[in-house]
Amino acid sequence: MSDDVYDEDGMRERADVRESEARRRERDRAEARAEEAGREAGRDGVRADLREGRISREDFARLAREAGISVREVAATLREHRPAQAAPAPLPSPSAAARSLATAATAKAKGVEELRRGETAEAAATFSRAAELAAAARAEPGSGSDGVSGEALRLQAAAELNLSLCQLKLCEWEAAAAAGSRALAAGGGEAATCTKAFYRRAKAPHLGQGQRDAALADLRSAARLSPQDGEVRRELARVEAEAEAEAEAEEAEAEAATVVGEATVTAAEEAEAEAVAEAPAVAIPAPERRSYCYLELAVDGRPVGHLDSNPTCYRLQP
To answer: Which of 11, 90, 115, 262 is disulfide-compatible with 123, CB 3.0–4.6 A?
Structure first.
């Protein structure tokens, strides 16, 4: 077999041609290696600029794409060079008002748990303490500037409402009504709070003190504030029905007393008439048989006459 080498045109290559091609290929490979080394140096420069903070992460992403850095490497490098997060600023120390408010909130939450467990007396004491702490928070200097005052007022109203509920359960009517009044004062006109305050205050006198007029006034106020509250509407209807029944009973009693009084007067008059009719007649003597008497009169010791009388008249005789 012949060792001749042929070119692409089927011509036998000469030795000098083969050597020339070999040198050209080697030169191309060297140029390619040099170009790749230059590109790698550029990529290294981009990486170094990012590490040393000379370019932003956004600039690095753009330059990395232009330098031929792969998307995967760009993402990994960006993750490694996330900007350091600044340490959070220290929180300001809470004010005395804020500390009182936090303590009040804790006490209120404790009272709720006690009430859920059925520990009504303990819950009442805890809610009372929460209301006192909330009031103290409002009274602290600067409570209005850091927003404590408004939150303390809302917490105080809620604690007083819960206290009123506990005292109703304990049949402490006057205390329950007083707590409802304090909740109403702290409620600031807020409809839901004032509705509950009116309702709780109405339940206290109605259940324990018999002050139905006061209960009706509070229930009607609650119904105006929350016309959709079914519990308020039902209680108002019940108390109104009781008030109407009581008024009807009082009217019937008054009518019965009037009838009895009239019958009594009539019976007394009849008895008196009968007594007069049955009394014996008094005989009046004739004039000539009547007795007379007179009174001697004197002026400055001198007789001036006498005063004569009979059963029908008096006359002065000289």
So the answer is: 115
| Domain membership flag for residue 316 | no
The average pLDDT across 280-309 equals 63
**Among the ranges 3-12, 17-26, 287-296, which has the highest mean pLDDT value?**
17-26
160 and 126 Cβ atoms separated by less than 8 Å: no
Whether residue 190 is contained in a domain is answered as yes
User: Using an 8 Å Cβ cutoff, are 212 and 179 in contact?
Assistant: no
Tally of domains in the chain: 2
The answer to whether 315 and 295 are in contact (CB under 8 A) is: no
pLDDT digits (tens, 9 = 90+) for 208-255: 455 778 888 888 898 998 989 898 899 889 888 888 888 888 788 877
Q: What integer pLDDT is reported at residue 1 of this predicted model? A: 46
Q: How many CB atoms lie within 10 A of CB 301?
A: 5
249: helix, strand or coil = helix
**The tokens of 101 are what?**
């408010």
Q: Which helix (H) or strand (E) holds 306?
A: strand 302-309
Residue with tokens 């500390």: 99
Query: Is pLDDT above 90 for 160?
Result: yes
Query: Which residues face 201 on adjacent strands?
Result: none
CA distance 245 to 259: 21
Residues 129 and 166 in one domain: yes
What 8-state DSSP symbol labels residue 6? B
State the Cα–Cα distance between residues 137 and 146, nearest whole angstrom.
11
Q: How many residues does the chain have?
A: 318
- DSSP-assigned states of every residue in 190-211: -HHHHHHHHHHHHHHIIIII--
How much is the pLDDT for 255? 77
